[in-house]
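ugh ok fine here u go
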Amino acid sequence: MRHLVDFREWTGEEIVQLLDRALYMKRHPKEVGRPLEGRTMAMFFQKTSTRTRLSFESGIFGLGGHAVYMDWRSTNFVLSEIRDEIRYVSGNCDIVMARLLHNEDLIEMARFSSVPVINGCCDKHHPCQAFSDLLTMLELFGHLAGLHVVYAGVWNNVLNSLIEVCTKVGIYLTAVTPVVNAGAVDESRRREALESGYFREAKDLASEARCADIVYTDTWMDMEFFLDPRYEEEKRRRMDLLMPVQVNARVLAGSKALVMHDMPVHAGCEIDREAIESDRSIIFQQSWNRMYAQNALVLRLLDII
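structure:
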């Protein structure tokens, strides 16, 4: 049995093969059928969600299965140990998706679950997002190896997962990150990525964007903090540090790069409205691909494809 907490144990060949399958499934839905007939996914949410919940629910339903949404705070996970609750849960479903605050809790779930566990987002990784990002790149460019992606903003869970998958499939990834989320960087993995030759760090976004195929940005503040008045000072500090790497017309001048953002978007912060609505923006295509990418991941973890 295999889990998806991150992509550390996946090979580049496995990732590319599954992406090819996901793209085929998207283009030929009638041939996919309803392989999850009689199957159930339990979904647990500590973090708020639009895309993760809707894409998983819609995807599971479309494949003939049933998805059960559970707000973490309304379950006995808040009262009991994870190891005990997940052993009960996994006896009542075929697969678990968990969108949690802490990576160690996901690892605990995977350790004691008798069914596959998918990381729907945590503080360290966002593997489903990165996998669907690659699906969008494959769909638009027809290949992955040799593409150049520039990520701008905060070093966070999304960047960690992009580093994992991009270095495995031959995508050159450059990070321009004046701010680092506390605890987000795994130094051993960072060194591995730098030594791979597919990852580097830079400071000038505009110059990097000129030779990029894709410029990618993400929120400057995690969603659980964005509206919290206690983090207002940190929000202002980040705005001051990060405005030079806002994705806008100045940064994109002289570049042919497409624009990606994993959403939710905060226009006027990490990206301006003009860039969101521009012809080079593929933000919504990127978001719609979450469902197709995750469908393939679910079917692979259940050994259906």
